[in-house]
Design brief:
315 residues
Length: 315
């Protein structure tokens, strides 16, 4: 016996009409609306406010230093208390402090001395640290890990503990009171070696092998393969060594006795006459002059400096 089944299929399935863009659904905001939510707006406002606050905390001391260098001694004390907008905006400016620095205190000559010492230290450190990093990462020999550990341990020695033996060594070489003696003891930088060794290790060894197949030796691999790959890290290395050299104070103060070889940090410190009240306008102007080259150098090279520093820290 067979049974026949019949299924009733509606000729037309009626669906509810879709709401038009901009109309309200059963609950919630208008459907299709492109306006951000109120919560998202407030989140952006608070994020921007926090960022501006952090920027102000970092920049206001520098702004106050630069502005105070253009004020007289009396104006600095009048504007500092109570703290107000007058502290950071000068009502009257004077360039007498800057004129005295360059005409009477010899800060211009000190700037040139510091630039020479920094350039000398950067070039010598670049040659020593790049070649040492290549040897420790590309040439296999027994004990290279121990050698690197010993070199890195010297970075933990305080500079103050090395002043006396270094001065005796410089005196034995008859180099005291010379600009070369300021940078010579620091050209073998343990920090720079660590920085470049991390960079060299990130370069694939296959590039070396391909160059050696073409007949390249160690120097050709070092010059034409490794250095072009790590050029961003080299910029970071140059800026760090330049910063360390430019900000040096204790060693130049010890090893330099003559006024014509004084470096800028020592010249700024010596702008205060012994036994006299400090001229804060002159001190702030000197600090501004000493800081300005570093800020300008960083602004020009920050696009290369920050990625290199971040990438080196992640290796």
């Amino acid at each position: 016996m067979s049974r026949s089944f019949s299924t009733a299929v509606p000729d037309q399935l009626e669906l509810p009409d879709a709401p038009a863009p901009g109309s309200h659904g059963p609950s919630g905001p208008p459907i299709g609306s492109k306006h951000p939510s109120t919560r998202r707006i407030w989140r952006r406002v608070w994020t921007t406010a926090v960022i501006l606050l952090i920027i102000a905390v970092f920049l206001l001391p520098y702004e106050w230093m630069f502005i105070s260098g253009l004020k007289t001694q009396a104006a600095i004390f009048d504007d500092i208390k109570p703290l107000s907008w007058k502290t950071f905006v000068p009502l009257e400016t004077t360039f007498e402090n800057v004129r005295e620095l360059f005409m009477d205190r010899g800060v211009g000559r000190a700037l040139l001395n510091s630039a020479f010492v920094a350039a000398f230290q950067v070039v010598c450190s670049l040659v020593l640290c790049t070649t040492a990093a290549y040897a420790l990462t590309r040439i296999k020999f027994r004990g290279r890990g121990v050698i690197f550990a010993i070199i890195l341990a010297t970075f933990m020695l305080p500079a103050e503990a090395l002043v006396v033996p270094l001065y005796q060594l410089i005196s034995t070489m008859n180099l005291q009171d010379t600009l070369v003696s300021v940078g010579l003891p620091w050209i073998a930088s343990a920090f720079g070696l660590f920085l470049l060794r991390q960079s060299f290790e990130s370069v694939p060894v296959e590039l070396d092998e391909a160059a050696k197949i073409d007949g390249a030796g160690h120097f050709r691999v070092f010059w034409s393969v490794i250095l072009p790959v790590v050029r961003v890290d080299l910029i970071t290395f140059i800026l760090m060594i330049f910063l360390f050299s430019w900000n040096a104070f204790l060693w130049p103060l010890v090893v330099i006795q003559s006024q014509e070889n004084t470096l800028v940090q020592v010249a700024v410190a010596q702008s205060v006459s012994p036994g006299a009240l400090p001229n804060w306008g002159l001190t702030f102007a000197g600090a501004s002059v000493a800081t300005a080259p570093l800020i300008i150098l960083f602004l020009f090279l920050q696009r290369l400096f920050l990625p290199g520093l971040a990438r080196t820290g992640l290796k």
